[in-house]
Amino acid sequence: MRKESLELLKSLLTTASPSGFESANQKIWCDYARRYADEIRTDSYGNAIAVLNPSGSPKVMLDGHVDEIGLIVKHIDGDGFVYFQRIGGVDPAMLRGKRVDIHTEKGIVRGVIGATAIHLSERGKEPKAPKMHEIFVDIGASSDKEARKKVAVGDPMTFVDSFEMLDGNVAVSRAFDNKAGIWAVIEALRIAKTSNPKCAIYACSSTQEETGLNGAAMQVFNVKPDVGIAVDVTHATDTPGIDAKQHGEVKMGKGPTVSIGRENHPLLVGRLRKIARRKKIKLQIETFSLTGGTDAYAMWTKNGGTPSAIVSIPNRYMHSTVEMLDLRDLQATANLLAAFCADLKKGEKFKVKI
Q1: Which domain range does residue 105 map to?
Q2: Looking at residue 276, which CATH number applies to its domain?
């Protein structure tokens, strides 16, 4: 991965953007995109679009979502302890003993999520995972008055975990879901620019996916694409305790995946597979998800039907505070998207023949 691209990835991962609070990360993404795009667009909810060759055809929407999971201050009790609700799919069982940054109007306030010492736990009782409303953040305040001077109801929180390379290829960080996706789409635009594509490329950094695919629904209305490809992470199932018979086989380091079925247009999927073979890009196959949806799910039924697909980067430990992926999979994703855009013929359409 080239140095400037890696620096962008690090900046995106280390800048907080819980759903509904994405503007700081959007500025980083837009500033980088301006070097390569013909124009930058934003809307009222902070969705961002980088456009290359706007007069081209077909109009291709490459969409990642900028938001990450997090927490938001819900209540401050009389002793100054802070209670919260989740932003997106946060597992309460993983929270105790974690550090958090509370993003306030005056800056970041550091806190820790309380974890009662094992010595003080009731012996002989089977330990149970806590419920979200039972967990609290300790910011070192001695009263609600002292706590309220520092934080307020509605302040978002992110987990304290930064980017780190474990070796030359494997990285860990919070929020690969889905800073990896917005990195891939703008890198695809940058790479595709060198081939003078016939199509128009709309690289999108969408908001609020984790709370309902909201930004992508706005983006598909804004862009009105002829083709839409959502770029997200997917569950790498190559760690202990995951049954491939139930969840499929996806391996980190073996390339991105493309999904089959439901929102994934068969001709579009077939084209991506063909290009991957031609370019010798490793590509894994998944079936459509029964447990969730990506931004492709927000695109495919809009505007009378938008040919859509999901290309995903294998990610271990998704929706935890420390996710893991192989940067070779990430680079291969950008390369595949760029090759797809370069391969399109002027005015090309994807339509199932009857």
Answers
A1: 70-159
A2: 3.40.630.10
